[in-house]
Amino acid sequence: MWAYLRRNPSLLVGLILLGIVLAFAGIGRLVWDTSMAAPLSSMPNQGPSWEHPLGTDRQGRDILAVMIVGTPLTLYIGVLAGLLGVIVGTILALLSGYFGGIIDSIVRGIVDVGLTIPPLLVLILVAVSVRANLSISQMALVVASLAWLWPARTIRSQVLTLRERAWVQVARLSGASHSQILFFEVLPNLLPYLMATFVGAVASAILASIGLEVIGLGPMEANTLGMTIYWVSYYAALLHGMWWWFLPPIVIIIAIFVSLFAISAGLDEFANPRRRRAV
Amino acid sequence: MRLQYVMRRFLLLFLVVWVAATLNFFLPRLGGRDPIRQKLMQQAGAGGYVHTGIDEMVQEYNRKFGLDKPLWQQYLTYLGDVFRLDLGYSIAHYPRRVSDVLAESLPWTIGLLATTTILAFVVGTILGALLGWPRSPRFVQYLFPPLLTLSAVPYFLLGLLLLYLFAFRLKLLPLFGGYTPGTFPSFSLSFALDVLRHSILPAASILLASLGFWALGMRAMTVTVEGEDFMTFAEAIGLRDRTLFYHYVIRNALLPQTTALGLALGQILSGALLVEVVFSYPGIGTTLYHSIRTFDYFMIQGIVFTVVLGVTFATFILDLLYPLIDPRITYQAR
């Protein structure tokens, strides 16, 4: 494991970076009073001090506490939406790639049409149509409503190549049922791709959720990273030079994206060793 | 074969537009909100009127906007309207039509997006090719880590950082808007320069953040093409480096890049809309942001539909151009 990681620097860097972000949220929760993430719990508009290392915002939240609470919430939305997306996408990909025919045409048609439409706009429509105030989990569901499109397309093309492999033919000739072939011959060989696709899906789900939050369609009561950015723009923190308010969420979000990007590139190399020179 | 390809693309175009219109129609109605009542209540609240007679007014407006008819009839009317590009009235700016508001903001978005996308594509592709080419100058390699990082950063976060740094701290460029408040859009040199100054930061955020995407894709393709047999042959017969690079590597590596352009259009647009919000740039994104705040039902629908229409047409045109670059594409059923 360690020896492999040393040969795959992008996976290593990504894991370390993600580890730092997780450690920040985990250790922070133990040593810092997170009740200060609530509005009006501290003096508003304070710059960094010993009492509030990252200062406070316009509504009297301690920014450090908000970051400690918000980072896991944002990750949760991404992981839940990404997981749902990959599960639904994989099921559709298996059905359409393995069986072909009419199911394949339908799934392919839906995916082609769905991927052409800019995702943020559909999500905005969905979020506007659902009730005014979303909870964190509803937010994840909204994002998941489109998160399956891309996994369905990429995994389907993998299923297409796997279906014709010799060992699958052998299984078919020896009388294995379709579900046996799917679960014991095709799925295990898909696992590395599924991991890479999952990480990619998490990243795009987080991006989509932050986009929705910034435009004002997020969970108003929750202190996610995206909502912090929303309040930053709502109260024009930039024009008041309150850097301690907007820099921390930006830094954490960028760290999350860079780490996920590096991990997915690393997993890609793991799943597809032939690309080793290319990535 | 050619005709069949064009027909397929056309069918996809038609499907996407129809799906977008249908989603547009049904999604907001699933929410069970009553935008007219909300708007009237809001106005009544702001004006301090008594709330009597609101119900009659709601009914009157519902009749006026055709919201009292059965759903299927509304749907057919809607499809008919959309077909004629009639997007109805804005609720928040009532007497104005959605299409009028859009006509004002569309040029800003198209101008910003077209310039940055083409620029990012060209520059990113060249950088990527140089990154993947073993005989390119040494310093190019140093660009790789920053490009990799930039490609992972969301456009609007980069926008926030640039805004803080160059507009707030260094006071080099304007803080918000598409032109200085108080001036009126006109075709004069000073106004053009003003617009240019205001668009530098939004354009830079989109450009920098999307540069990495193109560069990474092109780099991977260049490395792949490098390993092909025809490259070994071309090197063996002693072709010059320049010939190899321009005529062998770039030409072949460019093909997947153009496909990616079609696929990424929607993503780039989503990112650009948020950049507009960050900079209060007077384009579609900012208009959308304000109509979400005021829950301007028809405006949101109109914007979503127009943008989908735009992206789909752009993709359609790219799809039609693609066989000219790579004739193989028409023969494959994909």
Overview of the molecule:
The complex is a heterodimer of chains A (279) and B (334). Chain A is elongated and about 75 Å long. Chain A has one domain: MetI-like fold (Orthogonal Bundle), CATH 1.10.3720.10. Chain A starts with a helix and ends in an 8-residue tail after the last helix. Chain A has 279 residues and is mostly helical. Chain A has eleven helices and no strands. With 334 residues, chain B is mainly α. Chain B contains twelve helices and no strands. Chain B is 75% helix and 0% strand. The longest helix of chain B has 39 residues, at 241-279.
Rounded to the nearest angstrom, the distance between the terminal CA atoms of chain A is 20 Å
The whole-number mean of residue pLDDT values of chain B reads 81
What is the level-2 CATH architecture name of chain A? Orthogonal Bundle
Radius of gyration of chain A, in angstroms, nearest whole number: 22 Å
- Termini separation of chain B comes to 13 Å
How much helix, percentage-wise, in residues of chain B? Answer: over 70%
Structural class of chain B: mainly alpha
Biggest beta-sheet profile of chain A: none
What is the radius of gyration of chain B computed over CA atoms, rounded to a whole number of angstroms? Answer: 25 Å
Strand content of chain B: under 5%
What is the global morphology of chain A? elongated
Q: What overall form of chain B do the CA principal axes indicate? A: globular
Low-confidence stretches of chain A: none
Low-confidence stretches of chain B: none
- Classify the fold: give the CATH topology of chain A: MetI-like fold
Proportion of helical residues of chain A = over 70%
CATH first level of chain A? Mainly Alpha
Could you report the average pLDDT of chain A, rounded to the nearest whole number? 86
Number of strands of chain B: 0
Keywords (chain A): Membrane, Transmembrane, Transmembrane helix, Transport
Protein name (chain A): Maltose ABC transporter, permease
Membrane topology (chain A): Multi-pass membrane protein
Subcellular location (chain A): Cell membrane
